[in-house]
Amino acid sequence: MLFDVRAVRFCASARMLAALVFILLRIQPGHGQTCTQGFDYDRRSRQCIDVDECRTLPDACRGDMRCVNQNGGYLCIPRAMYNQPYRPELPAPPQPLYPDSSAGVSDTFLPEPPRSVEPSYPRVVSTAQCLLGYALAADGTCNDIDECETNSHHCNPTQVCINTSGGYTCSCTEGYWLIGGQCQDIDECRYGYCQQLCANVPGSYSCSCNPGFVLNPDSRTCEDVDECDEKPCSHSCFNTYGSFMCSCEEGFELASDGTSCIDLDECSFSEFLCQYRCVNTAGSFSCICPPGYYVYEDGRSCEDFNECDTGNNTCTTAQVCFNFQGGYTCLDPLQCSRHYVEVSDNQCMCAAENPACRDKPFTILYRHMDLSSGRSVPTDIFQMQATTRYPGVFYIFQIKSGNEGREFYMRQTSNVSATLVLTRPIKGPKKLVLDLEMVTVNNVINFRGSSIIRLTIFVSEHPF
Ligand SMILES: [Ca+2]
Ligand SMILES: [Ca+2]
Ligand SMILES: [Ca+2]
Ligand SMILES: [Ca+2]
């Protein structure tokens, strides 16, 4: 019986095994479709659908890795790749670069063939017919997925998505570059984009120039303005780098405005510029002289006008014209005093035989001279000399009259001569008459007589 029981049990076990196998055999064909790893069969659609491992697998990625589901697999991507590290690609001054989005910093984003992912990442298990970034078309070819169009990109709002073959690029617009995953304004001023003045603005910049310069068509370099084109100077203009300079012709000086020229008042420089008077003129000056003078060829001295030589006088034919500095006078014909007789046109004599002449000068000689006003002293101005010499005779020279102001002094220079010396300056115009006496003494015959030189001195008004 025991055997029977065993036999019965064996038979029962064999039946169960057969049933299990049957079930297995029945179930196996019941799938009807096999899916490769990473896909699950969807009965409704009767398709293999990708398993989202990121949702279904606990700890699909570990540590600081981020799970990204893929068709037929998944990727573990360092989270840092979603926040692009700071990658300054700084333009190197002084060679300025210009903002250009095409050459600017961009960031090629994730979807790349798995093999390009660094080996340390988990192996991507994918058996899809197309590479990542491509989709299988109905005709069996792989077509690029336009992530930008389908909005399946990971560019952040500050960035611009640019579709590429098999992927896409997150880029920044012109004037921005990618810093810390964000498109940030390029501070072009910091990198010397402008030659002179620079103003940074979001997404751009603007250059300007210092006064005296204009911005070139390149909008960044500055060029000197040739201000002289506008003729800002009264006289001459010299362009300089960044400015200009005016200069003036001789006789003018630059005014405080730096452009106009004003006449120099040469007369104020020195009172000795002209002998008499200085007259300022535009760009120059001239000297003038008082009446009776003309300006000498040196342009500053005054020269007496000789009215007697030129005939420019009012003297009658009977008169004698006498010229002096600054004027002239008409001398009347000689008229001798009482008892005197005219012996020449400038000399009168009182005859010795005439008793009336006993105490009078034997002769009176009329002479005229001119003298400059304020002439320096002492100075010799006139000479007297005896014309006859007798044995035992000596002469005394003296000023008999006209020297009340004591401007003169008679100095005897020899036995027979003397000099009239001016000892005090005389201010003109003035007419002086001096009687210069020569006393003749002859002790042998006990004779004493005198002769007079009546000297008329015309002192000019001016010291020239
Ligand atoms: Ca900027
Ligand atoms: Ca200039
Ligand atoms: Ca002047
Ligand atoms: Ca004169």
TrEMBL record:
CDD domains recorded: EGF_CA
Xref: InterPro entries: cEGF, EGF, EGF-like_Ca-bd_dom, EGF-type_Asp/Asn_hydroxyl_site, EGF_Ca-bd_CS, Fibulin_C, Growth_fac_rcpt_cys_sf, Nephronectin_domain
Gene3D superfamilies xrefs: Laminin
Q: Any idea which UniProt keywords this protein has? A: Calcium, Disulfide bond, EGF-like domain, Extracellular matrix, Glycoprotein, Repeat, Secreted, Signal
Q: Does the keyword Calcium belong to this entry?
A: yes
Q: Name one GO molecular function term.
A: calcium ion binding
EGF-like domain spans which residues?
Answer: 144-184, 185-223, 224-262, 263-303
- PANTHER family registered for this protein in UniProt: FIBULIN-5 (PTHR24050:SF26), PA14 DOMAIN-CONTAINING PROTEIN (PTHR24050)
**What protein name is recorded for this chain?**
Fibulin-5
